[in-house]
Task: inverse folding
């Protein structure tokens, strides 16, 4: 299953990024303004090099390893979510 399907089904995803295992709620998937495939997600657990273990993050998809769509779901978009995220030049899927 893909990031697009995880967004459509409101399923959590698990992956490793910057050496830290993370679990996140995917909200927007597309291409960022620098041309990188990217994902805007709300991280709900795991580690982070910034020390911020929960919150909004922009992940470069090519740096996400071991991506797994988890069976757990989330109810709706997180507070602070903006459709049409301006960080993206192209959006493939969004809540």
Result:
């Amino acid at each position: 299953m893909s990031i697009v399907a995880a967004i459509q089904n409101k399923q959590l995803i698990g992956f490793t990024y910057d050496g830290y295992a993370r679990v996140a709620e995917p909200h927007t998937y597309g291409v960022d303004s620098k041309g990188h495939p990217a994902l805007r997600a709300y991280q709900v657990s795991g580690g982070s090099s910034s020390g911020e273990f929960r919150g909004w993050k922009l992940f470069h998809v090519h740096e996400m390893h071991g991506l797994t769509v988890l069976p757990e779901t989330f109810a709706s978009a997180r507070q602070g979510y903006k459709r049409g995220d301006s960080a993206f030049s192209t959006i493939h899927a969004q809540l």
Observations:
- The CA atoms of residues 1 and 69 lie 7 Å apart.
